[in-house]
């Protein structure tokens, strides 16, 4: 055998076939994951509606055909709640509009300064009436977010004036003027904005709109005091969770990656709080500030931040008390204006168990022996006025 022959290595003919098989298996695995993650095999259907058989609800169904039409999502990513959340919630549309508004500043009794942006209509309302949408954005959001700008742009063109609350501490270029920022259910700033609109536009009627955390705030605001419902035509709540106490349990689960979303939102809350640390922790001892900041840095969930920081702004003694008193589920039965509650069936944040709350509000199942006086209250005051869409 020559030296050259000793350097020759032979490859078994079975190896290329084995490599091809591994490639096919890898491709099949990737395709399977894509199909599952993008939810491509799910069927489309009309929205799931819960409502009472009333003339008002029939008019709503007749005038808003989207409520009864089958939802046809965009191809590839449109069936995935995760991708919809990422693309629309974070990135927004390809070319988000930039409506022109005026920023208003409202001094609060405790020294805080509430801000909201006011957008005048750019067209006539088809009824000829003066109608203002008072809008409350989601957690840590404000009037400059893509989804808010897009919503306002559509509303302006349809003849609506829009007032958008900027959550206290959410705008990076607006300093806090008191040791307090927005919380899950504090309605003070929203009430101040609504009060301003009522005084400045004596003839206007209001449509109240809230997104996510903002949905909780607006429903709680209306239910806190009957006078808050004066001159309100209706309320629309979009994708809220109704009860923070019930939601906290689901937020720690990995189902639908809620635990991951919880971590991301907690990280964003950390950034907001830390950007205002000099205003929020003023007056406390160095030891207390170090302790609060230490717990903030190590927090990995919204519940930890709420327990260590947020509940203290309003003097709540425990996280349970904070969530109980800040959740609209304890106030929403007092709402006597038409109420449209909208939730996405594939919302990765709002667990399906939480949707029992709006379904109970929207329809009362006859029971010869009601479980409590609250059931009767819901049947008498809410069922004919509430409309739930999932």
Structural summary, described in words:
With 390 residues, the chain is of the alpha/beta class. The protein has a domain at 97-355: 3-Layer(aba) Sandwich (Rossmann fold), CATH 3.40.50. It is built from 15 helices and 9 strands. A 9-stranded mixed sheet has the order 1-9-8-7-6-4-5-3-2, with helices on both faces. Strand 2 (102-107) and strand 3 form a beta hairpin. The protein is globular, with a radius of gyration of 26 Å. Its main location: membrane. Residues 132-354 form the AB hydrolase-1 domain. This is Monoacylglycerol lipase ABHD2. One of its GO terms (molecular function) is acetylesterase activity.
Following the backbone from N to C, one meets helices and strands in this order, namely HHEHHEEEHEHEHEHHHHHHEHHE
| Strand elements, count | 9
Question: Roughly what fraction of the amino acids lie in strands?
Answer: 5-15%
What topology, given as strand order, has the largest sheet?
A: 1-9-8-7-6-4-5-3-2
Unreliable stretches covering 5 or more consecutive residues: 365-383
From the 3D coordinates, which CATH architecture of one domain would you assign? 3-Layer(aba) Sandwich
The helix content is 40-55%
Continuous helix count = 15
Q: End-to-end distance, in Å?
A: 79 Å
CATH fold-level topology of one domain: Rossmann fold
- What is the SS-derived class? alpha/beta
Topology:
Layout: H1 3-6, H2 14-37, E1 49-50, H3 55-63, H4 81-91, E2 102-107, E3 113-119, E4 131-136, H5 146-157, E5 161-166, H6 188-200, E6 205-211, H7 213-224, E7 232-238, H8 244-250, H9 258-275, H10 277-280, H11 286-298, H12 302-308, H13 319-326, E8 339-342, H14 356-362, H15 373-381, E9 386-389
Parallel strand pairs: 4-5, 4-6, 6-7, 7-8, 8-9
Antiparallel strand pairs: 1-9, 2-3, 3-5
Enzyme class: hydrolase
Membrane topology: Single-pass type II membrane protein
EC number: 3.1.1.23, 3.1.1.6, 3.1.1.79
